[in-house]
Write a structure and sequence with these properties.
Rossmann fold, 184 residues, five-stranded parallel β-sheet
Length: 184
């Protein structure tokens, strides 16, 4: 399940590229918008909702609960892939639904925004950060120290926050695929 950051949604080319690699590996994927159209429009004007990680986390939790009731996928382990503030939402959900969430991957994420939930996250968590994204590296290292389950921080050399550099996103997709295959 993909939890997108601000200004991004189920049509995000970056997350769709990662999802495609996961599907090719035999993993089911769900890309969803965490904000309604009206909320997204408001956020574009005010930037108020993009950092409301509790709201975003509640939406991820609701989706996990919905997935649990679906006959075709209800028994599958859940992996959460979070980007930017969506990473905090994914970690909040992993802490609240620890029996359902079996793995978390954060791409250029802000896990520090889920500070209150980090100690409850037992799912193996992979933090992927671009090598040129120095502030986010620092924030991820700090958040990683709070995680109680298995965790790993991978820095992609030469990549920025959005992993737009040649082959950077492919590296992210391969790391996510391998992490999910090992832990789901």
């Amino acid at each position: 399940m993909f939890a997108h950051g601000s200004g991004s949604g189920r049509f995000s080319p970056r997350n769709r590229a990662v999802a495609e690699v996961l599907v090719e590996a035999g993993l089911a994927t769900l890309l969803m918008d965490l904000l309604t159209r009206e909320e997204e429009a408001e956020d574009q004007r005010t930037a108020r909702l993009r950092f409301d990680v509790q709201l975003l986390g509640d939406r991820v939790i609701g989706t996990i609960d919905w997935l649990s009731r679906e006959p075709d996928v209800g028994e599958l382990s859940v992996g959460c892939f979070g980007a930017s503030t969506g990473a905090a939402a994914a970690l909040i959900a992993a802490g609240e639904r620890s029996r359902r969430v079996a793995a978390v991957v954060s791409r250029g994420g802000r896990p520090d925004l889920a500070a209150h939930a980090l100690t409850r996250v037992t799912a193996p968590t992979l933090l992927i950060v671009g090598g040129r994204d120095t502030e986010v590296i620092r924030l991820n290292r700090s958040a990683q120290a709070e995680l109680t389950g298995e965790s790993k921080l991978v820095i992609v050399p030469g990549a920025g926050h959005l992993f737009e550099e040649p082959r950077a996103l492919e590296k992210v997709a391969a790391l996510a695929r391998d992490w999910f295959l090992a832990h789901l």
